[in-house]
Design goal:
Elements lengths: L2 H17 L7 H4 L21 E5 L4 E3 L7 E10 L6 E10 L5 E12 L4 E10 L5 E10 L3
Antiparallel strand pairs: 1-7, 2-3, 3-6, 4-5, 4-7
Length: about 140
C-alpha cells in the first residue's frame, strides 16, 4: 500500500474518532429513552403512617366498587376485627395502571378496634389518568399519632 494512502486513511480514522469526542452534541445521548409521564406516579400521593409490628389482615375487609376514572374517587368499606386483642388498623387503596404503577392512593386509620367490632370508613384519593384497577391492603399492629 502506498505511504500516502496509508497516511490519509490513518488521518481520516483519527479525525472520525476525535469528532465523537468533541463537546458538540452526542447523537447517542439524544437517542436515550425518554420517561413516559403516564408511567410515573404522581408526586401528590399521600404517605400512610407506619404500623409497628405490622401483620396483614385482608380477610376482614369488605369494600364497595372501586372506580378508576381520573379525578377524585372515593370507596366505602368496613373492617370487622377477628383478632383476639384490640389493635390499630391501616386500610390502603392504591389505584394502579395495568403495569402496577400507582396512579392514586388513599388510606384510613382505624385505632383501637376491639375484637368482633366493626368499623366503617371512606377512602378518598385524587387519581391520575391511566388507572385500571384498585389494590386493597390491610395491616394491623400499633399506629402512633
Amino acid at each position: 500500500m502506498n505511504i500516502r494512502i496509508a497516511t490519509a486513511l490513518t488521518a481520516l480514522a483519527l479525525g472520525i474518532t476525535l469528532t465523537g469526542c468533541t463537546s458538540g452534541s452526542n447523537p447517542a445521548a439524544s437517542q436515550a429513552p425518554q420517561v413516559d409521564p403516564s408511567r410515573v406516579s404522581p408526586t401528590y400521593l399521600p404517605t400512610p403512617p407506619s404500623v409497628k409490628n405490622s401483620q396483614g389482615d385482608i380477610k376482614d375487609l369488605v369494600m364497595g366498587d372501586c372506580q378508576t376514572e381520573a379525578g377524585k374517587q372515593s370507596i366505602d368499606g368496613t373492617l370487622t376485627s377477628s383478632l383476639a386483642d384490640t389493635a390499630d388498623f391501616l386500610v390502603t387503596v392504591s389505584w394502579t395502571n395495568a403495569t402496577g404503577d400507582v396512579m392514586g392512593r388513599g388510606f384510613s386509620v382505624i385505632q383501637d378496634l376491639k375484637p368482633g367490632k366493626t368499623a366503617t370508613f371512606t377512602i378518598t384519593a385524587k387519581v391520575a389518568p391511566g388507572a385500571t384497577q384498585c389494590v386493597k391492603g390491610v395491616e394491623y399492629g400499633t399506629i402512633k399519632g
